[in-house]
């Protein structure tokens, strides 16, 4: 099992509005820890064709964008967005939001984030939602509070102490 504590990863971005730390790049999962300041936009609506996008909200409220609207999820919530579900996110609140983002499998997410930071285009499994509406609907996303949630046979757990465990692949210890 790969274990990591926030502060031990690669800083992708660090500003008053946003902090993103790349915690793990394993074949099965790439993981980041992010802090978005009040009102900070994240990603517009997009789909992934070959991997699930999982959000584990540690502190504050994360606003998920889905076709037809938005949904606010709070601390302790695990959201698993399967392939082909259009989604995006932002911090719509007046306080910081902290969350772990898991891409399962990794599909090069770490390189994609570095590319965004360095202003270099990197091919990645992220696309505009289909114009013809083909794809899964928001109801196909798994929203659970509290955890665990199972994604393609891998169980993601947010423990009471803030530890995030991804099957037997990764354990993210709480902030110290």
- The secondary structure category is mainly beta
CATH topology: the name is Jelly Rolls
Describe the largest sheet: 7 strands, antiparallel
What's the helical proportion of residues?
under 10%
> Which descriptor suits the 3D outline?
globular
What portion of residues belong to β-strands? Answer: over 45%
How many beta-strand elements?
16
**CATH 4th-level superfamily:** Jelly Rolls
Task: Show unreliable segments.
Answer: none
CATH architecture: Sandwich
Radius of gyration: 15 Å
Count up the domains.
1
How many helices?
1
Write the element-wise H/E pattern from the N-terminal end onward: EEEEEEEEEEEHEEEEE
Mean pLDDT: 91
Strand order of the largest sheet: 2-3-4-11-6-9-12
Protein name: Cupin domain-containing protein
Domain Cupin type-2: 34-97
Organism: Solirubrobacter phytolaccae
Please summarize what this structure is.
Helix content is 6%, strand content 47%. The chain is mainly beta and 176 residues long.
Could you characterize what this model shows?
β7 (61-66) and β8 (69-74) form a beta hairpin. The protein has 1 helix and 16 strands. The strands form 3 sheets. The protein has a 7-stranded antiparallel beta sheet, covered by helices on one side. It is mainly β. The protein has a single domain (2-172), classed as Jelly Rolls (Sandwich), CATH 2.60.120. The longest helix is centred in the middle third of the chain and has 10 residues, at 109-118. The relative contact order is 0.26. Helices cover 6% and strands 47% of the residues. It is globular and about 40 Å long. This is Cupin domain-containing protein. Residues 34-97 form the Cupin type-2 domain. InterPro entries: Cupin_2 (IPR013096), QDO-like (IPR053146), RmlC-like_jellyroll (IPR014710), RmlC_Cupin_sf (IPR011051).
């Amino acid at each position: 099992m790969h274990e990591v504590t926030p502060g031990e990863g690669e800083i992708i971005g660090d500003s008053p509005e946003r902090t993103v730390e790349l915690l793990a790049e394993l074949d099965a999962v790439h993981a980041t820890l992010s802090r978005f300041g009040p009102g900070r936009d994240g990603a517009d609506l997009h789909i992934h064709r070959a991997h699930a996008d999982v959000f584990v909200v540690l502190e504050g409220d994360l606003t998920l964008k889905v076709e037809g609207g938005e949904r606010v999820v709070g601390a302790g919530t695990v959201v698993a967005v399967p392939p082909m579900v259009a989604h995006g996110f932002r911090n719509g609140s007046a306080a910081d939001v902290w969350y772990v983002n898991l891409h399962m499998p990794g599909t090069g997410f770490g390189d994609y984030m570095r590319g965004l930071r360095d202003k270099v285009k990197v091919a990645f499994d992220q696309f505009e939602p289909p114009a013809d509406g083909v794809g899964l609907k928001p109801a196909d996303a798994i929203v659970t509070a509290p955890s665990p949630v199972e994604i393609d046979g891998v169980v993601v757990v947010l423990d009471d102490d803030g530890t995030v465990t991804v099957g037997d692949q990764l354990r993210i210890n709480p902030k110290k």
